[in-house]
Write a structure and sequence with these properties.
Radius of gyration: 31 Å
Largest sheet: 7 strands, mixed
Shape: elongated
Number of strands: 10
Distance between the termini: 97 Å
Order of helices and strands: HHEHHHEEEEEEEEE
Helix content: 40-55%
Structural class: alpha+beta
Length: 242
C-alpha cells in the first residue's frame, strides 16, 4: 500500500519542523556555558591565589625581597592563614569553571584543606606563643655600607626556649633582598659580628657564662646575595651549603 500525495505532503511538512526543533535544541546546548560573570569571578580568584602564593614563596625563599622587616616577620608568622586563603581562592576558581559533580567535589576538597590549615595555624599560634617574635638583638653594617647584619631573638612557635636568627640584608634598594645565615634553637646565642672584607663576616656566638665563643664564617656572593653556607642548630650543629 503506497502513500497518497496528501499524506506524503504532510510528512514533508513535518520533517523540516522536526529538524528545526532539533537544531534549536543543539544550538541551546552549544550556547550553554559559563557566564561572563563566572569567568570574571574565576579570574579574580586565580589572580588572588597566584598573588598569595607569590607572597608565601618570597617570605620563605633565600634570598627574598623585603619591603619591611616587620611585615616579613608578620607574613611568616601568619603564613598558615595566607595559605588557607589561597586554597579557598582556588576552590572558588574551580567552582566557577568545573561542571556537574566536579563543580562541588573539587572545590569542597580545597575548602576542607583550607579549613584544616587555618585551624592548625590557630592552634600553633595559641599554643606556641607566636605573637612574641622578632626582638632585635644587634645590627652591624659592612665596611662599604651596602650590607646590614641583623640578629633577632624570638619564640615563634616555641614555648620552651628562644630561637635566634641572623640575616644579611641589602642597604639602599626600595625592596632589599635578605638572606638567612644563622638559625639556632636555645643556643648558641649570636653575640657579635665582625667583617674581614666587605662580603666575608664572622659571627661570634655563646652565652655570657661561656669562656670560649664560637666562630662561624660566612661569605656572601655579591650579585645573588647567597651565603656560601647557612649555620643551623637544632640538636647539634648543622651546616647548609659547601
Amino acid at each position: 500500500m503506497t502513500d497518497t500525495p496528501k499524506a506524503s505532503q504532510q510528512n514533508n511538512t513535518k520533517m523540516p519542523a522536526k529538524q528545526a526543533v532539533e537544531t534549536g535544541e543543539k544550538n541551546k546546548k552549544r550556547r550553554r556555558g559559563r557566564s561572563s560573570f563566572a569567568w570574571f569571578v574565576a579570574g579574580l580568584a586565580i589572580s588572588a591565589a597566584i598573588v598569595l602564593g607569590g607572597i608565601l614563596w618570597n617570605a620563605f625563599s633565600e634570598p627574598r625581597y623585603v619591603s619591611s622587616p616587620p611585615l616579613n616577620i608578620f607574613i611568616q608568622k601568619f603564613s598558615g592563614y595566607i595559605l588557607s586563603a589561597a586554597l579557598i581562592a582556588i576552590a572558588i576558581f574551580c567552582a566557577c569553571l568545573l561542571r556537574r559533580r566536579w563543580a562541588w567535589l573539587v572545590p569542597g576538597g580545597f575548602v576542607l584543606a583550607g579549613a584544616v590549615v587555618g585551624v592548625a595555624s590557630t592552634v600553633l599560634l595559641v599554643l606556641g606563643g607566636g605573637l612574641a617574635c622578632g626582638k632585635r638583638q644587634f645590627e652591624t653594617a659592612s665596611p662599604d655600607g651596602r650590607l646590614l647584619v641583623v640578629a633577632m631573638r624570638g619564640n615563634c612557635g616555641e614555648t620552651t626556649a628562644f630561637t635566634y636568627t641572623v640575616v644579611v640584608r641589602e642597604l639602599g634598594p626600595s625592596f632589599p633582598r635578605q638572606s638567612t645565615i644563622f638559625k639556632s634553637f636555645d643556643g648558641p646565642i649570636p653575640t657579635e659580628v665582625s667583617f674581614s672584607t666587605d662580603r666575608t663576616l664572622t659571627l661570634l656566638t655563646g652565652k655570657p657564662s661561656d669562656k670560649i665563643l664560637g666562630r662561624y664564617t660566612v661569605t656572601i656572593e655579591r650579585k645573588s646575595l647567597r651565603p656560601d653556607k647557612v649555620w643551623r642548630f637544632r640538636r647539634g650543629p648543622m651546616r647548609d651549603g659547601s
